[in-house]
Amino acid sequence: MPAVAEGADGYLVTLESLLKPDPKPISVGVPSGFGASRGLAFASVAYTNADRNTGVAGDDDGSIALGIGLGDPGSGFALEAVIGITSVSTGFWGDGTFGDEGNLALKLHRRVAGLPGADVASLSFGVSNALGWGSTRDLPRSWTVAYSQVSTLQVAGDRLPLNATFGYGTSISAVSREPGAFGSVGIGLTGSLSAGFGWVGDELQIGAVYFPAALPSASLGVTYADATHRHSDRGRVIVSLNMTFDKWSRK
Hints:
Layout: E1 40-50, E2 57-70, E3 78-85, E4 102-111, E5 118-133, E6 142-155, E7 158-172, H1 173-176, E8 178-188, E9 193-200, E10 204-210, E11 218-225, E12 236-246
Antiparallel strand pairs: 1-2, 1-12, 2-3, 3-4, 4-5, 5-6, 6-7, 7-8, 8-9, 9-10, 10-11, 11-12
């Protein structure tokens, strides 16, 4: 899989949204302007029924992302660092080569004055596949700039959070090999369910995220990628489980 982990590049949810009151806004399938800051660590496990690189149905794939945040985006640039393990085969399934492929992604992000109507906004500069091992060294390095904001939408007396993201990257279109623009809109519908869509260069992704009340630091995301079948006959399904760990480094 390209980059860190498909479905985990935006982590399907803005990481800090897991720590915010319900309902929660989300981002679908794109790099976010927000990122992890000091005191926040996270883990994401993603599975897809079709590898984006091959486009072959049944050629399923999986990946794991582990990340931490450093610095305060409110007073300066914070750094998010993510290690992606893109080979998760074991002796029980696959060829048993767990961990022989992976990479490192880095992102600088800072809170900024948002566009009109924004409650909070952030700008990020990131690089995916900054360093790699195994076959990920053959994938292009992707530089991205992204802007994200969360605003409030009034619907029938309810106040629903709306997350909007747009940006540009050097390896976004043509299966993450050509430059392209990206964007995402997500809305928190209830305390446990959010939905949205993302445009990734030349591909539409539609997703939803479930936040279990019993595990407030967890989320389960399901995305239907290549929804317009530009790169495949059936599209592909991405399922991800995300966990955040707050205050891991705070005294």
